Amino acid sequence: MTRPITAGVDGSEESLAALAWAGREAVRRGLPLHAVHAWRYEPHEAVEGDRDTQAGWVRDAVDAGVRTVSGRHAGLEVSTDVVEGDAVDVLAAAAAESDMLVLGSRGHGRVVGFLLGSVGQQVIAGTTRPVVLVRSGDRATAEVDGREIVVGQEGSPEDSAAALGFAFETAAARGATVRAVRAWTLPPVFAYSPGSLKLLDEAGGPEPYENKALAEALQPWRERFPDVPVVEHVEMGSAGQVLLSVARRAQLMVVGRRARRTAVGARIGSVAHGVLHHADCPVAVVPPA
């Protein structure tokens, strides 16, 4: 089954930017584009129209955005779906049937960055598919001016396999370079075990050990995508800070997700959360394989 690239659309400037991004990516990957909107009937004296009338208004708004994207990409297969229901449930269900889900996110400059609302956070934390967040000011020119696909790698090769795979597939579709970033910090002295000290000694120290770990994680993806140029970037510092330090190089930032549930709601991991709020390029959050 061919999975579409799905964009959540509500008529806002942010969602239209997400739809435009999704359309370009669908063309690159040879996939259909699907636009979905979740809505609720508002039976209120201040809101005119019955259920069918309001549904028609919503569909007209979605269709207007879709027509714009279709006009830019002749031959692109496009479908739309207006679903009455909770936005998180509707978007999560659409994501489950998609190659990826693309959402708009409000951005107010490089300092504030993305404003990730509760809907977006819950969808990212709950879905098993990659979710891409796109700012309202995103432009296609940022994808063709030599910028890279930046991806964070941490832990073992298996830990970051899903994020690396998404980054390499995207880079191959765009003819772009992958910059794989691995950040490291010195652990407290008491955290060193005899086994870890032996591994560090055999590698020649912490930094050579981290370089080796990144190279091992990248090896299967280099073999699978031999035409994709790769830059290996190992730097001391927190993962979020190191990734953001190279954000200006990126046409897309790819991070893994460590979702967990707490008493106050969904959490997607500190690195993904920090990058989503401060990177000024689209960000893909990829769940574990």
UniProtKB/TrEMBL annotation:
Pfam families: Usp. Gene3D superfamilies: HUPs. Residues 1-135, 147-287 form the UspA domain. It comes from the Bacteria. Belongs to the universal stress protein A family. This is Universal stress protein. It comes from Streptomyces chromofuscus. The lineage of its organism: Bacteria, Bacillati, Actinomycetota, Actinomycetes, Kitasatosporales.
